[in-house]
Amino acid sequence: MTETTSGPARGSRAKGNKGGKGLRIERIHTTPGVHPYDEVVWERRDVVMTNWRDGSINFEQRGVEFPDFWSVNAVNIVTSKYFRGATGSPERESSLRQLIDRVVLTYRKAGEQHGYFASPADAEIFEHELTYALLHQVFSFNSPVWFNVGTKQPQQVSACFILSVDDSMESILDWYKEEGMIFKGGSGAGLNLSRIRSSKELLSSGGNASGPVSFMRGADASAGTIKSGGATRRAAKMVVLDVDHPDVEAFIETKVKEEEKVRALRDAGFDMDLGGDDITSVQYQNANNSVRVNDEFMKAVETGSKFGLRARMTGEVIEEIDAKGLFRKMAEAAWACADPGIQYDDTINHWHTSPESGRITASNPCSEYMHLDNSSCNLASLNLMKFLRDDDKGNQSFDAERFAKVVELVITAMDISICFADFPTEKIGETTRAFRQLGIGYANLGALLMATGHAYDSDGGRALAGAITSLMTGTSYKRSAELAAVVGPYDGYARNADAHKRVMRQHADANGVARRMDDLDTPVWAAATEAWQDVVRLGENNGFRNAQASVLAPTGTIGLMMDCDTTGVEPDLALVKFKKLVGGGSMQIVNNTVPKALKRLGYQPEQIEAIVAHIAEHGNVIDAPGLKAEHYEVFDCAMGERAISAMGHVRMMAAAQPFLSGAISKTVNLPESATVEEVEEVYFEGWKLGLKALAIYRDNCKVGQPLSAKKKEEAKAPEAAAPAAAEKVVEYRPVRKRLPKGRPGITTSFTVGGAEGYMTANSYPDDGLGEVFLKMSKQGSTLAGMMDAFSIAVSVGLQYGVPLETYVSKFTNMRFEPAGMTDDPDVRMAQSIVDYIFRRLALDFLPFETRSALGIHSAEERQRHLDTGSYEPIDEDVDVEGLAQSAPRQTEAPKPAQPAAAAAVPAPKQAHNSTELVEMQLGLNADAPLCFSCGTKMRRAGSCYLCEGCGSTSGCS
């Protein structure tokens, strides 16, 4: 989709507009004369979200309309977070169509008003393509767009803000006010306090200055009080201090000292758990802190030299310190409490497109947006899994051409939004309109790498990530140059033209020397090379519309909206996840990327099924049947026995950083056993590898831990034991439901590995399997007797209410002789007689959705998957008839599930999301706060936290 009146760009896909200025928009996904809404199946659903701690309803809206392929979680989050209008009122939005139209039509109207399109027909194509991409979860704008665009309230589109503060009381009080207004609007802000005089310097009145750390205290209290957007999410903020500031040591130690306070108060009996009544007395907890280091300091660390701390007003050195000693204190503090993070000043400003207008001194709260003071950045992220292709022969490729087209579409929309956007302060509005900073990024990188058989910490994985990032940013700046020809370059471009073009050449040079690895990344690198060539050429003629184009944000809530398995640049959290089901309930499933990865690595369907079943039971791939040890690394995750190493995270960041305008929101995870020296290594190597910023988190380093209500009750139990003993104890016992004298049944003959047998399965007349009898022939009295005893035990369990799916999940994949080929076309291989029996019972008696999630499919369904990529019935009515013949217990049509070559077991009752599930399965404790809205444990998303249950985040995206 690309083209302007300035002349056709090489490799463009549309003819130039000869009738006047404006973009010619090319179709990507849509069909002329057909609206994207008419190509999907819509259905009505009820959204009821509860707080699991007390069962209270947090949110309820019934009869909302969504496409049938949207997951329960995505529907819940979009309905509760993004639909506008008072709940229960006629004005309340009730359909995804209304939400998308509210946003897309606003963008189209603004684009037409400001001359972006060559004709009304191009504007309509733009509208349809943007609608399609949002409808099909190809990309998403950041949350403020969904909150505000098309409403009567200020149309704020940015989530990220950078403020500034000078060395005056007036400026400091303005900082408090501006920050508070940004928090109130639901966003976050960052700033650098280094202009404020240190406590070691004198005021004009003769007394000592308070220093920035003292002013941080007031701002922190304000942030802790203001709830973002009127909701229960706390404010997100970043505080940066330069390494040469005389108060840098006090800044480094702020949170460490508070952690010591937490420990002392906890030992004295105060409630210091996260969310506890007394934790609010702890200071400096509402901000991420980062030290801004420069090359001079890092070289002094490297050589063991002295380093000078400078007065803020005169710049003179007022104290010399040991650089290594200060660096060590930074590492010790981060080891103890995860703060401060680190930002590399010279690297950041080396890639700065607008240095003549001011240095980059700070970042937004999550560290991905870095540009001028008093500026903002609106974000959008692409779902990388939407661009992974499988051809008829099973070969994979990344659709670089379509990816580039979507990037062009999204960048165009993002730039249009600045034309109508409102901003929290006049200064931010002026800077943003003058420099038009954008932050396109992506999500699902971890899922894409695993699905393509790449280890996250591997040369191949890093090459593919780097290629995609380079193509994204190169295409973005190419479109920015084309926009400059249509609607003009950004206001600050003329003053910064030389620097901007220099940075474009730096990106292009980095792309040229990047290492190509395999058949997946090489074509993407080629497309990126062509894009960067166009950037340099078009930029020379047209200039650029945007001072900044790309970042890698956490993609918290919008990642859930797009049904992404992984957020931002992060790897998979674990190989199992928590899935909500339509109509209520949930289950634990193995990530769908796992079977795709195994297929890419050359494993056969029977092997894949066995490996997935092992993961479902154990949560990892260690000792999985038939899995080669050299392939273990492909399935390494952020948590678990084979967790990705700290340097694995750093190296992935380094692979993407040269191809980003901004930086990367990411936390480098370290195990609890990590040493201070390892933290020093991460911070030092981050500088060497050219990162702009990073933060670390060592497991269990926080004293205040999130404690569920259940655990608190258990802690209080000893005190209440005596009174409770006097209370009447009510004991509940299961009741056996016996089958009637006459009962329907199915008798099946089978052969497993040459051993013959018969199985009779009898059902209750109304519904459900009630008993199983097994008879083995020619196998001797011992085996026949054991099978008789086994079948009686199973039958009694069924009659006492044990679900069949529980037996299936426990006994399938059990391995012992006899095993091997069977005479059943639906179950060609069995690892034992027990394995065969319960696969057959699942096929005969379990609904499609349940057994599909367990990875059990009929021969017909497996063939359908090969033909269409889906196990789901094509014609539901025909499928019901077929199922009725094989499963007399079923009284209604099974609900189709998402394609799942992944085994599953019912989710434990104690787990409420993937983080809690992983904790239980792997025996870990994930350090994360409990969600203020719904009470579940959140999980990390970049440098922030995300609640999978309700979509709340602790950050600004």
UniProtKB/TrEMBL annotation:
Recorded catalytic activity of this chain's protein: a 2'-deoxyribonucleoside 5'-diphosphate + [thioredoxin]-disulfide + H2O = a ribonucleoside 5'-diphosphate + [thioredoxin]-dithiol
What keywords does the record list, in alphabetical order? Cobalamin, Cobalt, Disulfide bond, DNA synthesis, Nucleotide-binding, Oxidoreductase
Q: What cofactors does this protein use? A: adenosylcob(III)alamin
Q: Which Pfam family is one of this chain's hits?
A: TSCPD
Annotated ranges, domain Ribonucleotide reductase class II vitamin B12-dependent N-terminal:
47-137
Q: Where is the TSCPD domain?
A: 743-843
- The coiled-coil segments of this chain are none
Question: Does the keyword Protein biosynthesis belong to this entry?
Answer: no
**EC number(s) per UniProt?**
1.17.4.1
Instruction: Cite the GO molecular-function annotations of the record.
Output: ribonucleoside-diphosphate reductase activity, thioredoxin disulfide as acceptor
Q: Where is this region: Disordered?
A: 1-23, 886-909
Cite the Ribonucleotide reductase large subunit C-terminal domain residue spans from the record.
158-697
Write down the PANTHER family for this protein, in alphabetical order.
RIBONUCLEOSIDE-DIPHOSPHATE REDUCTASE, VITAMIN B12-DEPENDENT RIBONUCLEOTIDE REDUCTASE
Question: What is the recorded function of this protein according to its Swiss-Prot or TrEMBL entry?
Answer: Catalyzes the reduction of ribonucleotides to deoxyribonucleotides. May function to provide a pool of deoxyribonucleotide precursors for DNA repair during oxygen limitation and/or for immediate growth after restoration of oxygen.
Task: Tell me its family.
Answer: Belongs to the ribonucleoside diphosphate reductase class-2 family.
* Protein name, as recorded: Vitamin B12-dependent ribonucleotide reductase
